[in-house]
């Protein structure tokens, strides 16, 4: 009789231990998902905000298109709208690639491999976005004189010299800052995935 009681108690205890282990694994998986997505949100949120600014700028140019009084300025206006839309689409595509890679319900080896592939796609799309940003800067500076009115300042040669040089200097430093920040976040996310696989 005692042997049966011990066996029954042993079975009950082993069931409780397994349930507790499963619960701990679920809690760990949920915490891992939250950590992973919070790392990615450091990239996703600024990209979504930037996309909203791009769409808003394209709409602003569209509503004020009547101010572009010459054919050359109208061509620049259309080019600016196209660039804003293309940059927005590329930005959303790049974050979609990173977000797709974050399915940590799959085996870790598959998740790491997928993340590495999607990270490369993300970097390529971001470099293309950066290149288009330089062209966009030119179109925006050209449109400033028509969208916000001509005056002594915008008709001066110094306006063109300072606006292009300051714009490009700002874009170079800003793009380096963003690139560094994104790389750091991607490295941290990749390290988190590596930790989870151990």
What does this structure look like?
This protein is mainly alpha-helical. It has one domain. It contains 5 helices and no strands. The longest helix has 62 residues, at 2-63. The relative contact order is 0.11. The model is unreliable at 21-25 (pLDDT under 50).
Strand content: under 5%
**How much helix is in the residues?**
over 70%
Order of SSEs, N→C?
Answer: HHHHH
Low-confidence stretches: 21-25
Number of alpha- plus pi-helical segments: 5
- Summarize model confidence as the mean pLDDT: 76
Q: Could you tell me the number of beta strands?
A: 0
Topology (elements, then pairings):
Layout (H helix, E strand, L loop, with lengths): L1 H62 L7 H30 L7 H40 L4 H4 L1 H41 L1
Quick rundown:
The chain has 198 residues and is mainly alpha-helical.
How would you describe this structure in keywords?
single chain, 198 residues, mainly alpha, 89% helix
């Amino acid at each position: 009789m005692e042997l049966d009681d011990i066996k029954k108690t042993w079975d009950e205890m082993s069931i409780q231990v397994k349930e507790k282990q499963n619960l701990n694994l679920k809690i760990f998986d949920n915490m891992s998902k939250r950590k992973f997505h919070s790392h990615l949100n450091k990239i996703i949120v600024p990209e979504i905000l930037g996309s909203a600014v791009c769409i808003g700028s394209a709409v602003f140019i569209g509503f004020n298109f009547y101010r572009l009084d010459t054919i050359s300025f109208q061509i620049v206006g259309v080019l600016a709208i196209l660039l804003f839309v293309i940059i927005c689409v590329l930005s959303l595509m790049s974050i979609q690639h990173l977000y797709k890679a974050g399915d940590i319900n799959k085996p870790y080896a598959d998740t790491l491999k997928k993340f590495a592939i999607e990270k490369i796609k993300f970097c390529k799309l971001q470099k293309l976005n950066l290149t288009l940003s330089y062209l966009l800067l030119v179109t925006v500076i050209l449109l400033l004189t028509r969208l916000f009115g001509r005056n002594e300042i915008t008709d001066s040669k110094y306006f063109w010299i300072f606006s292009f040089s300051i714009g490009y200097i700002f874009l170079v430093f800003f793009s380096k800052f963003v690139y560094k920040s994104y790389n750091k976040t991607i490295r941290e996310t990749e390290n988190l995935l590596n930790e989870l696989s151990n």
